[in-house]
Write a structure and sequence with these properties.
Radius of gyration: 21 Å
CATH class of the largest domain: Alpha Beta
CATH architecture of the largest domain: 3-Layer(aba) Sandwich
Order of helices and strands: EHHEEHEHEEHHEHEHEHEHEHEHH
Strand content: 15-25%
CATH superfamily of the largest domain: Glycogen Phosphorylase B
Structural class: alpha/beta
Largest sheet: 6 strands, parallel
Number of domains: 2
Oligomer: single chain
Strand order of the largest sheet: 3-2-1-4-5-6
């Protein structure tokens, strides 16, 4: 625990660069806002994360500073901030904060990085959920209330934009995120996704929509190629920006995903998630809240490898039945007004 903080006037929170991490860090960022309700609060984030804060979160920043490697120090200096809270634990983030001239620099102590900080919090032992990693940092700064579930809701205009995109799509609506940025090992096989989509359409009268970034298109095409005649899926992979994705998620009644940023975004949007975990550790990155996490226990997981060197057994042995049953339970328990 560090000594009591000086009262700041212009605070910027540097968010993590990965979408999922940024979502998991929302309660920590919201705690900073709650601790300093009257200060000018800004969020600094890379372009693939910053749009979250144009929608409705508990962080309520007055300013969004979009940064990249080339301009980050300049953009932070232009903001005339007196305090920066560094959620990333990298040496670079602390170095850039120092170069930007921000006098009060708060974050985790890690090796030489601590020399660049004015308030350094000792890092807790590994093993906790990633959201707790961020919460523990702000608690270590004597900022309370850093736990809880991340929440994101679309602005009305964003939700309406998504409704137009989904015009004519029936309910219940089940979302699928078949991609994963970390590597192919995190992806549940397309054959399993196609089987679940087929059963949801035929047995539950559901509509299914696939979402993801442009790099996930190959996975989407593979799934579509395995669907039988008469079974269709709405393929929005590569067709939504981040804000529109948040809007689409707000219309979903359930969501199926690998361990990905979209998984965390859906959970924060209040959608029941069926999360499929293989090589990564669900204890560290499971969706926060009341969701289903499916794993198949094998000796080699979690290996954290991008590509499986053997037979991908941690994912191939998760059955379509288990995914289908999870989703149908969630649909059955969804509020009726959510399926209207």
């Amino acid at each position: 625990m560090v000594p009591d903080n000086p009262v700041p006037h212009r605070v910027v929170i540097r968010m993590p660069n990965w979408l999922g991490d940024a979502v998991m860090a929302l309660p920590a960022a919201a705690a900073v806002r709650a601790e300093y309700p009257s200060v000018h609060l800004a969020i600094a984030a890379i372009p693939s994360v910053a749009p979250i804060f144009e929608e409705r979160t508990a962080v309520l920043p007055q300013q969004i500073v979009v940064v990249d490697k080339a301009n980050e120090a300049v953009r932070l200096r232009e903001g005339a901030f007196d305090t920066i809270v560094l959620l990333p634990n990298s040496f670079r983030s602390a170095w850039v904060a120092r170069q930007s001239g921000i006098p009060h620099r708060w974050g985790y102590a890690a090796g030489a990085r601590r020399l660049l900080l004015t308030r350094a919090v000792a890092r807790k032992r590994a093993g906790a959920h990633q959201s707790e990693y961020y919460a523990a940092l702000v608690r270590g700064l004597n900022i309370n209330g850093a736990g809880g579930v991340p929440t994101i809701a679309p602005q009305e205009a964003t939700r309406a934009r998504a409704a137009r995109l989904l015009d004519g799509v029936k309910r219940p609506l089940v979302g699928f995120a078949p991609g994963a940025a970390y590597g192919h090992a995190k992806r549940w096989p397309p054959k399993g996704v196609a089987e679940v989509v087929t059963r949801l359409v035929r047995e539950r009268g559901a509509a299914c929509v696939m979402v993801g970034v442009a790099g996930d298109r190959e996975a989407g095409r593979a799934i579509e190629s395995l669907l039988p005649a008469g079974v269709q899926v709405v393929n929005l992979i590569g067709r939504t920006d981040l804000r529109l994705l948040i809007g689409v998620l707000s219309h979903c009644d359930a969501f199926v995903s690998n361990d990905s940023g979209a998984m965390h975004l859906a959970a924060a949007s209040g959608v029941p998630v069926t999360a499929i975990f293989g090589p990564t550790n669900e204890r560290a990155t499971a969706p926060i809240g009341n969701h289903d996490v499916l794993i198949h226990p094998v000796f080699c997981r979690p290996c954290m490898l991008r590509e499986c060197p053997i037979d991908h057994r941690c994912m191939t042995r998760i059955t379509p039945d288990s995914v289908f049953n999870s989703v149908t339970r969630r649909i059955a328990s969804a509020p009726e007004d959510h399926q209207a």
